[in-house]
User: Fold this.
Amino acid sequence: MQNFIALWLHRFKKYTHIFKVYLHFFSDYCKIFIRKKRSTKNITAIILTQQFGDIVAIEPLLRQIREAHPNDILLWIVKPIFKELLAYNPNIDIIIDDFCANHRLLLINSGIFDKIYNLQFRNNSYCEICNVYVENPVADSKDITIHNYYFQGNLLNVQQKIAGFPVTDQQPQLFISNKEINKIETLSLPPKFITVHCQSAQNSRNWDNKKWEVFINYFIKNTDLYIIEIGLTSDLKINSEKYINLCGKLSLLETAEVIRRAKLFVGIDSGPAHLANAVGTFGVIMIGKLANFINHIPYSGAYKSGKNAIIIRNETGPSADITVEEVIEQIKTNRLLLKV
Assistant:
């Protein structure tokens, strides 16, 4: 009996999901069709649904696409959780919520788009309920995969190659509205602070919590700076009025606004580091060996050139092996606190 119930619960979940897939597809198709007919403009679709650091990093590519399609309606398909990163970008006309890979595949195959720039790797384009992958034949034809992409350059360069645009080294921009600015104003943040981001979704990118605690306590004790931690969650045990934990309390753009106001951003290679690059805050970023990638650089613009960032590397292992002393010494040697 239990097996019978489990089987029908599984089927109910699957068929309910598939029903919603087609509901979303027909709704989105009709919305796009009506917009297209009313304007008589072509629809150019950009597909990059997740990895919010990638979405921030490739903003210069969006400008290139707009220049190539000045009269088109530019549409971006993205996971709902990340759509705020695109909401105020003047080069985007429509944002479509990505329900699942199958929903995306139906839109791609519908013929509603006049041009498609699919920037999503196959590995990140699977719906386990529908058992559907979305292929990326353009990336495959150029032999660019999740396993070798950093050999092609930074995140912007990789996507420029997939999209067929000239490889450039441009500074990404992020568009923050008054809504986010006003929200951060209500927090009455201290005038001088360092923002830190300590945890990534990938453990291999993280620094040890004990090291973070030593690092933070050093600056609390030896400077007049406050420390504000951002991110989803925090496991740090810091007992000081000069430490403010905003983890899990901010939207992505609100997080970006906090970083923008910071005197310094210190973090690991993750999404918030891309926010820091885009808003122009000087960064100290710890990067370790990542799979087969040793000297990879995720960033373009001032973070890549070193004009606005210091990259501290461990070429033989994870970033967790970078010492606290090395990070503090880099900050002191480069006299970063004098800029505060």
In short: The mean pLDDT is 91. The longest helix spans residues 2-39. The CA atoms of residues 43 and 113 lie 5 Å apart. The chain is about 40% helix and 15% strand.
